[in-house]
Amino acid sequence: MRKPFVAGNWKMNMDLASSLALARELKGRVGERADVTLAVCPPFCYLKAVADVLAGSAVAVGGQNMYPEPKGAFTGELSAEMLLDVGCTYVILGHSERRHVMGEGDELINAKVLRALQAGLKPILCVGETIEQRKADRTGEVVTGQVRAALGGVSADQMARITIAYEPVWAIGTGLNATPQQAQEVHAMIRSLLADIHGRAVADLLVIQYGGSVKPDNAADLMTMPDVDGALVGGASLKANAFVPIIDACPGAA
Ligand code: PGA
User: Fold this and answer.
1) CA-derived radius of gyration, the chain
2) For this structure, is 95 an active site residue?
3) How many helices (H) and strands (E) does the chain have?
4) Does domain 5-248 have CATH number 3.30.70.890?
5) Residues 59-116: pLDDT tens digits?
6) Domain coordinates of the chain in residue numbers?
């Protein structure tokens, strides 16, 4: 039985006061939930403050990115150790904005996944196709390639600490979300790929989130799909009044 996992990706939004206010509100409204795994991923500069507010609650904290070296001359970057030091449990890796805006490739993302695991963080690995790739019927090939590349060298045991977020690039921040059937099709494909790589038992335990314009009014339909195990939420995670109903939409929750 997989527990649903809902994570909020705040991206480059919020300020200190609004971050603290949202963290306090989430702690009050969902801080005791045991039926859903919960996390928020604030901008780096607010991580420690948010983690302090959420300490002892059910809402974990994650970084939005990291660099795959423990320390050194990497101006502007942060290590896995630094994320752990300020209270992070998770780190989002391979987000499409990192891939497409910052030009990150599969090799770098793989290095980050391996380093995060080695340091003790839990990666949320994002994969997804562009609209051109979907129209060219290349979704399966693209997502398979991203998953295989990012998870190269990851052991079956380490897979228990990985979450995959399927986020079609054309659905992120656009208001265009994948239909529940489109999401299910790709999620099932990812799970069977993992079964090929690590066996059915590992694949059955893998939590696969859907991301891309998840909102309170579409969350329930997405999350009733058998291979959709929660959501990675951008825009709708910035307000408790949108984020909490998404959590409540998880099967078995509320
Ligand atoms: P969105 O972002 O919910 O605003 O589409 C999702 C994401 O990028 O993780």
Assistant:
1) 17
2) yes
3) 11, 8
4) no
5) 999 999 999 999 999 999 999 999 999 999 999 999 999 999 999 999 999 999 999 9
6) 5-248
